[in-house]
Design goal:
This protein is α+β, with helices and mostly antiparallel strands and about 160 residues long. It is built from one helix and ten strands; from the N terminus they run E-H-E-E-E-E-E-E-E-E-E.
């Protein structure tokens, strides 16, 4: 299936492009500050209090039952050429999960467009599709965003791209 992203799929893109320079400058200042505020441990474990003589029990802090991936053909799709991507979804035990995926396009984290049609089905844990990008998207650093909805919950997955001629 090939979904053609129409030029009107990016209605707020031009106004956001004007603000992109300011956002990029702010991100150069805010990102290092927020990383410093978060600390650099990168640890995803928490430990429970232990009784004397007993080993500490650690569990992952993030034990969501839903696991998913979004993988694109590359990070530089060509204008007016089919670009393949896939979404996979499993539960915590690795069993396939079905649901729906909404494809959006984000610029600096803000949604600027949606795929047409916006919703695809994930069947038995897999969904494969293609997108075709319009000339208006050339050179713009976008994220292809897959918003996955299942009975186990929802996840948002981003794949950064810059459309090429």
């Amino acid at each position: 299936m090939t979904d053609l992203i129409q030029s009107n799929s990016f209605p707020r893109l031009s106004s956001l492009l004007r603000r992109r320079t300011l956002a990029a400058a702010l991100s150069l200042v805010v990102l290092p500050l927020s990383l410093a505020a978060c600390g650099a441990t990168g640890s995803t474990t928490s430990s429970k209090t232990r009784a004397p003589g007993k080993a500490a029990v650690t569990t992952p802090a993030d034990t969501r039952p839903l696991h998913a991936t979004l993988v694109g053909e590359n990070h530089a799709p060509k204008v007016n050429q089919p670009w393949s991507y896939s979404v996979t979804a499993t539960d915590a035990l690795g069993h396939p999960v079905s649901g729906t995926v909404n494809i959006e396009f984000a610029l600096s984290g803000q949604v600027v467009g949606h795929n047409t049609p916006p919703t695809d089905q994930v069947t038995d844990g897999h969904m494969n599709n293609t997108l075709t990008f319009p000339a208006e998207a050339v050179g713009v650093p976008l994220d292809v965003r897959a918003v996955l909805h299942t009975t186990l919950g929802s996840l948002t997955l981003d794949w950064p791209i810059t459309v090429q001629r």
